[in-house]
Amino acid sequence: MGKTYERIDGRLRTFIEEQHLFFTATAPLSGDGTVNLSPKGLKGSFAILDELTVAYLDFAGSHAETIAHLRENGRITLMWCAFQGPPNIVRVHGRGEPVFRDDPRFPELLGHFPDIDPAAHGLRAIIVVRAELVRDSCGFAVPYMSYDGDRVLHAQRFAREDDDSLSEYFTKKDHVATSLDGLPGLPLPLPPSTV
Questions:
Q1: For the segment 82-136, what is each residue's pLDDT rounded down to a tens digit?
Q2: How does residue 1 score in pLDDT terms, banded at 50, 70 and 90?
Q3: For 184, left (φ over 0), alpha (ψ -120 to 50), or beta?
């Protein structure tokens, strides 16, 4: 039976921090717009900032749907599943915001991710989410799966990029500056990295 929580702390916080993978879901306001669901991982790329605020690093990729949807309406849901141990699913429904590299808050936010080299992953933004509803559910049907380790391919691919080549890479992609539904996505060219 699901339970609603007033804050992310105690056992709930421990559960979230122990998971190696989470999912984000966003959508445009348009009723026929494209719903986006993305897996997120990489040890050290997620942080709980306070009892109602979480953040994760948004790395280089071929799309920017989450950024576009957040810029339009801010709605986001994050979900964690227990693939090992007792079954559990936790969802954080809230309002999110992409904090870009030229935002004055960026350096302080980046301090919450000390184990990540932002240059190695083509860091585009930090997504900050303020929880409005926090719930869990049983997860009885989620299968057991083992965690073998983080993939190194992303860092290998993007560590060789600088700000200019990264902006060029994004410019060549169809759905980075503009979403699948034509919403503004990642502002290009990228602001210079200050870290």
A1: 999 999 999 999 999 999 999 999 999 999 999 998 888 899 999 999 999 999 9
A2: low
A3: beta
Return the CA Rg of the chain.
17
Enclosing H/E stretch for 26: strand 22-26
Q: Answer for the pair 27, 69: CB distance below 8 angstroms, yes or no.
A: yes
Residue 49: in which H helix or E strand, if any? strand 46-50
| Token representation of residue 146 | 């083992």
CA distance linking residue 24 with residue 75, whole number of Å: 10
Tokens of 134: 């926090």
Distance CA 70, CA 122 (A): 20
Average pLDDT over residues 170-183: 94
Residue 62 CB contacts under 8 Å (≥ 6 apart), including other chains = 173, 175, 176
**Residue 167 to residues 6, 8, 40, 110, 182, Cα–Cα distance (Å):** 41, 36, 22, 20, 19
**Contact, 75 vs 24, CB < 8 A?**
no
- What stretches of 114-192 adopt beta strand conformation (E)? 125-137
All domains of the chain, ordered by start, with CATH?
3-172 (2.30.110.10)
pTM (two decimals)? 0.95
d(CA 163, CA 173) in angstroms, rounded, equals 16
